[in-house]
Design brief:
Radius of gyration: 15 Å
Distance between the termini: 31 Å
Helix content: 25-40%
Structural class: alpha+beta
Largest sheet: 3 strands, antiparallel
Number of helices: 3
Shape: globular
Length: about 90
Amino acid sequence: MNTNLMCCMLNILKEIGQGYHEKIYENGIAVDFEESQIECLQQSKLNVEYKGIELGYFIPDLITYGNILVDTKTIDRITDHERGGRC
């Protein structure tokens, strides 16, 4: 399952390259998910609760398999932060 997800997410980057807005990559991933018959919801609103109190909501780019959230991000360069360096 996770291998298919990763392949779909990397396909758009390989095909069109870098430099586009996050929405372009989100839409491309959604296309690949559909072609791979991976169930996907795009821009669904999720309520966030803590100790029974609603804190607000979160809208991830994509939700697959009912519980895997995909939120695309673009950056200018990879730093130690992205590599998992010190906080």
